[in-house]
């Protein structure tokens, strides 16, 4: 299958690298300059808990490409720009594997082809241009945006699983997306603000904060008619933190490299939806305020 990965940072390079290791796949990574040129010159090394050295095509220019499948792994705030770029090319299927909510809708509004929803809980870090480390085996969950069975999702699920990615094809994607939101709401801002690895949210004193953020997210989900129990949200957050205990969350990576974070699409999204529903989410509100204040301070907001 011909596959283009849009936004091949840490997670996109990991997914693209694993897919490229299957001989039947031809993968193009759309990435930032130093990473794209390193992959072009010496290939992509996947190390850590998954290992491969492969030679996918890499480019910084995603305009006008054609493929069977486009996998979108850009930051949530870049989804609209990615959708515009994707619209200049031609794809049979687009799959969003991003943090935050609403990415699939943004893509579907701009594109004529089917758009699938997805989440990933693998730990991944770009160690240097051309080298991505898998720091925790998680899974990829994908399916129809509105839920229900989808033959396209089954096909893409088989493709991912055959390449060696832990994959679940889900028929309840709206709930799965909220569950992953609870995971990110609990882990990302807490580890970014405290400069700790994901496992820190399992120990005092950060554990109460992470659990409260996940609990609040589940309450907001339920108020939006998504059946996510508090127990399931907290258990999922803790299980991902355990599986990726030594990983640097994507938000901590952003803070360490002084880049804009996904706070608006994660804790900020929980706050916005809570306001609409007339609910209080004090932990998510404080985490959002602190990260936004940091972003302002370093001039990325
Ligand atoms: O999605 C992630 C992220 O860092 O954004 C997790 C699953 C928490 C892995 O670190």
TrEMBL record:
- Tell me the Gene Ontology biological-process terms attached to this UniProt entry: coenzyme A biosynthetic process; pantothenate biosynthetic process
Q: Which UniProt keywords apply?
A: Coenzyme A biosynthesis, NADP, Oxidoreductase
A single Gene Ontology CC annotation of this entry is: cytoplasm
> Domain Ketopantoate reductase N-terminal spans what residues?
3-145
Q: One short Pfam family name for this protein?
A: ApbA
> Highest taxon of the source?
Archaea
EC number(s) of the enzyme? Answer: 1.1.1.169
InterPro entries, alphabetically?
Answer: 6-PGluconate_DH-like_C_sf, 6PGD_dom2, ApbA, Ketopantoate_reductase, KPA_reductase, KPR_N, NAD(P)-bd_dom_sf
- Which reaction(s) does its UniProt entry say it catalyses? (R)-pantoate + NADP(+) = 2-dehydropantoate + NADPH + H(+); (R)-pantoate + NAD(+) = 2-dehydropantoate + NADH + H(+)
Any GO molecular function: 2-dehydropantoate 2-reductase activity
Pathways involved = Cofactor biosynthesis; coenzyme A biosynthesis
Which intervals hold domain Ketopantoate reductase C-terminal?
175-293
Cited function:
Catalyzes the NADPH-dependent reduction of ketopantoate into pantoic acid.
Name the family the entry cites: Belongs to the ketopantoate reductase family.
State the name under which the record lists this protein: 2-dehydropantoate 2-reductase
Q: Organism, per UniProt? A: Natronorubrum sulfidifaciens JCM 14089
